[in-house]
Every structure is written in C-alpha cells, then in structure tokens.
Design brief:
By secondary structure, this protein is an alpha/beta fold. Helix 5 links the parallel strand 4 and strand 5. The chain has a single domain, classed as Nucleotidyltransferase, domain 5. It has a five-stranded mixed beta sheet, with helices on both faces.
Length: 231
C-alpha cells in the first residue's frame, strides 16, 4: 500500500484555429443594445475576450491539455513527465508506464492505495481521466476521479484543511505552504503557466510542478502527524 503524491499543469487547447473559433462566436455583454456600441466592442474588445475565454479552457478537460505531471511515491524522489510538443497522449502513456514500472524491495508491483494532492478531488484527478478519454489512452492504473474528498482512495490537502463547507480559512497551496513555514511559489504560479509555455519555458514549468508535489507531500505529512518527514 503506497501513497502517490500528484499534481498536473494544464493549458488551453493548442488545436489550430482554437482562438479563431471562439472569436467567431463571441458575444458582447447582454447589457449592450445600441448597435454603434456593439460595433465598437467588437472592434476594440472582442479579441481580448476571445483570448480570455480560450485561457479558461485550461480548466476544462474536454478542451484543455496536460503539459506536465509531477508525482512521488511515498517518501521517494519527485518525478516529472512533461512534453515540449503536441504529443499529449505520449505524455500520458509515459506517466502510466513509469508508475507501472515501480516495484517494492521484494520486486513486487507497487499497489497505490491513496492519491494525494492539493484540490485533486476538485480538479486534477478528473481532468487526467477526461484527457485519457478524449485521447483514447486507456489508463493502466485506476484513477479515482469519482472519489469523494473523504474517501480513503484520496487525501486532498485543500479539503482536509478547509473542509467542504463555508470555512473561510486559507486554502491555496501557496498560502498554506507559507503558513507552515515553506517557501512560496516564486516567480511562477498557475496563472502564468500558459505564458511560460508560449515562451518555450517547459523545463521551468516542470520544476514548478515538482515543487508543488514537494509542498503537497509536506502538507500531507504534517496533517497526518508524520513530523519526521516534513519537507
């Protein structure tokens, strides 16, 4: 029985014409009724609105894409599978292959009992499963995308800390990590991942992805009173 600490980085669709398709169907605010004002909005703001809507695809498993998957088994090293091209299916297959190659000290295949990460029950797990479905990549391990936050198959550090109700405490990985004495995210955060991708800075994204797993594992250990393993 092992814990898989896990995190993904995503970007909007890289399909040809993705932004243009949004631009063709973009609509001005419903409050606009004067044709001259509508025409001005299309001329001055439609492109920005289309780009903004395109970026939101990073949160939609039907349209967005995975570019990096960082993971660690128990107290082992943090690994990362990432892509520098359009081969997202290859990225998924390499991740599953690496997990399947894991064996214990007796040479037996490792059994993953729990997936752990920050808000994985609200995003990462389902997005991973959705991309596998969209690309026809059959997972070789069970992805507990349907798990509730309190299921033993997952440990969601965000939900564990804030709960599922209206608790108002800090919930972001960055803020929570700082509260526990760890370093913050630095120059890159989730909102900048796509810009880094456009600039060809995938290795920096992969390192950021790895550091998120380091922080998530530290939070898991702290929340489970495994103090000797903190950071």
């Amino acid at each position: 029985m092992s814990i898989l600490h896990f995190d993904i980085e995503t970007i909007p669709s890289q399909a040809d014409g993705a932004v243009e398709a949004i631009r063709e169907n973009i609509k001005p605010p419903a409050s606009m009724s004067v044709q001259a004002t509508i025409d001005k909005w299309y001329a001055e703001k439609a492109d920005d609105a289309a780009n903004e809507q395109h970026r939101k695809q990073s949160f939609d498993g039907a349209l967005g894409e995975i570019i990096s998957i960082a993971w660690a088994l128990d107290d082992g090293p943090v690994n990362v599978n990432y892509r520098s091209d359009d081969n997202e299916a290859g990225l998924l297959r390499s991740f599953f292959a690496d997990i399947n190659d894991l064996t214990d000290k007796y040479g037996q295949k490792v059994h993953i009992s729990t997936w752990s990460g920050h808000y994985i029950t609200g995003f990462d797990l389902r997005f991973l499963w959705q991309r596998c479905v969209m690309l026809g990549v059959r997972p070789t391990i069970h992805i507990p995308y349907e798990a509730k936050p309190w299921d033993s198959k997952v440990f969601d550090t965000k939900v564990a800390w804030t709960g599922t109700g209206q608790y108002s405490g800090i919930g972001s990985l960055d803020a929570l990590s700082k509260a526990f004495g760890m370093e913050g995210k630095g120059d890159i955060d989730g909102s900048k991942v796509y810009d880094y991708w456009l600039d060809g800075r995938i290795e920096e994204i992969a390192e950021y992805n790895k550091q998120d797993v380091v922080k998530c594992r530290a939070l898991y250990n702290k929340m489970n009173f495994i103090t000797e393993r903190i950071v």
